[in-house]
Amino acid sequence: MIAQWLEIKPFDTLFFRGGEPMEAGETHEAGVPIFPPVPETIIGALRTAILAQKGIDPERLKPLPEDQDLDPENLPLWGTPKRPGFSITGPLLKANGVVLFPAPASWFYNGALGETLTVYEARPLEPQEALPVKLSRSKALWVTKPPEEMEPLLGRFWLTRRALENTESFKLKVACSLEEISEDESLAVPFNLLLKTEERVGIARDNRFRVVKTGHLYAARHLRLASGVALLVGLDKPLCSSHLKEEGVFQLGGEGRLVRYRLIKENPQLPTTNNGRWLAISPLSFSKAQSASILDVPYASGKLIRVAGFDLRTGFHKPARSYFPVGAVFFTDKDKGLCELIPF
């Protein structure tokens, strides 16, 4: 259950990356940007913002045991150095005042990109429809009467709420501009209308002498949201205004990119249907999915993403972890209690 929603707008660009090396001599590129970022990235940024707004020196965390609460009386939701006291869902995208969701990995279109898309849904085979062949997966998904050429919607489009409430085979109108996006229509919005990538060149610095390191250049791909597009992040606990101000500024992602946030009073509308499908609207940790036993059901997903990170408290790298990307779909009638998933 989501208690509050934050709207987040970057001042300039955003920079999220995975676990690719950035050592001199290994690569000159910082890898493909990861969007949306994993929940830990946003949670870490919010916890750092809480410390800044409450005037708490981060050095205070270093001697604190991993499982000891920072301030259980005044900041119970901050949690311990190892485990936060809150979770998030999203980020979703908001364009022209309309909330957009990642396209399900189980949806495909006929490959012809025009004013409309004919969409085909892959669904689990019923036991009586089992194939008399040996497959690599015991729980196969099947598209009924597929066309000769199909392309996945995943990664190419974001959808309105009404679009998500469709099933089987149907048509979606393709938005040609942000001004066309409406809450009342089943729309597919091309991803490149919402977000662009920008090539940036960076340098490495010698912190001891405060000079540039010779030959240490790297190229990075930053992300720029289109004008009028914002991120929406759901909080399962009410951080505002006991822990965070209702609006403010904090750093999000790599290179300390600044964003402005505000608490929105009206919660965004989520899909109202439940057809035994659960959509990942946040990257879902593979280990968390295993613990919730959701890998026992049929599912569709894009390629897993690998994300590392840096622990500011210990001054050392975090181990790399695997995540299902947004848009992953799990077919089950049971609620597994994961805030990264919504029924549709």
Notes on the protein architecture:
It comes from Thermodesulfatator autotrophicus. This protein is mainly beta. The chain has one domain (4-343). Helix content is 8%, strand content 35%. The chain has 4 helices and 24 strands. Strands 1, 2, 3, 4, 5, 6, 7, 8, 9, 10, 13, 14 and 15 form a 13-stranded mixed beta sheet that branches. The longest helix has 15 residues, at 39-53. The chain starts with a strand and ends with a strand.
Short description:
This protein is mainly beta and 344 residues long. 8% of the residues lie in helices and 35% in strands.
List the helices and strands and how they pair.
Elements: E1 4-10, H1 39-53, E2 88-95, E3 98-102, E4 107-109, E5 116-124, E6 141-143, E7 151-152, E8 157-159, H2 161-164, E9 170-174, E10 187-190, H3 191-194, E11 195-206, E12 211-225, E13 229-235, E14 247-252, E15 257-264, E16 277-280, E17 284-285, H4 286-291, E18 299-300, E19 305-307, E20 310-311, E21 316-317, E22 321-324, E23 329-331, E24 341-343
Parallel strand pairs: 9-10
Antiparallel strand pairs: 1-13, 1-15, 2-3, 2-13, 3-8, 4-5, 4-7, 5-6, 5-9, 8-10, 11-12, 14-15, 16-23, 16-24, 17-22, 18-23, 19-22, 20-21
